[in-house]
């Protein structure tokens, strides 16, 4: 299975549908909130959410959804990345709730060869995340520096650093 792409493999207009989706649990949401010290009651306090918000229930913290989608896109987009250069925009356009399943897909918007090094280029992509009913919940655009094949070949090929198993004997 391929992990990431070389610069030459990206085509402007290509769409990568990331698989599988991820059902967001209360545990996922609360753990992310606690790890990142986001203790807003909208995410952590059922009573608060039921009695004081328009949603009537906890809303999953948006940065978890962004992080989830970013992670989903790695195998298709940035698995070979030299660097994540920029997150140009990030929009949370609809809420996510415990029990929703998130799916993602990324569209290649542009690609530019490096002016300073001939073994890499920059790929500009947009990732959207949507729920099981198709509602888009998150959209972000980012730029990723990815290697050309020559860069990968000079550093060990498709899976650099992978050891060779030694049979017991």
TrEMBL record:
InterPro entries: HotDog_dom_sf, MC_hydratase, MCH/BMMD. Pfam families: MC_hydratase (PF19315). CDD domains: FkbR2 (cd03451). One of its GO terms (molecular function) is lyase activity. Coiled coil: none annotated. This is L-erythro-3-methylmalyl-CoA dehydratase. It comes from Blastococcus aggregatus.
């Amino acid at each position: 299975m391929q992990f990431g792409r070389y610069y030459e493999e990206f085509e402007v207009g290509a769409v990568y549908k990331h698989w599988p989706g991820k059902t967001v649990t209360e545990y996922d949401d609360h753990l992310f909130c606690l790890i990142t010290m986001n203790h807003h009651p909208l995410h952590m306090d059922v009573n608060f959410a039921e009695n004081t918000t328009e949603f009537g229930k906890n809303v999953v913290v948006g940065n978890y959804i962004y992080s989830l989608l970013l992670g989903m896109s790695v195998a298709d987009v940035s698995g070979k990345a030299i660097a994540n250069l920029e997150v140009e925009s990030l929009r949370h356009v609809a809420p996510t709730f415990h029990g929703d399943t998130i799916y993602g897909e990324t569209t290649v918007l542009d690609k530019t060869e490096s002016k300073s090094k001939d073994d890499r280029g920059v790929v500009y992509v947009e990732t959207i995340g949507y729920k099981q009913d198709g509602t888009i919940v998150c959209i972000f655009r980012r730029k990723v520096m990815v290697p050309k094949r020559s860069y990968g070949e000079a550093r060990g090929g498709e899976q650099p650093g992978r050891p060779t198993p030694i049979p017991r004997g």
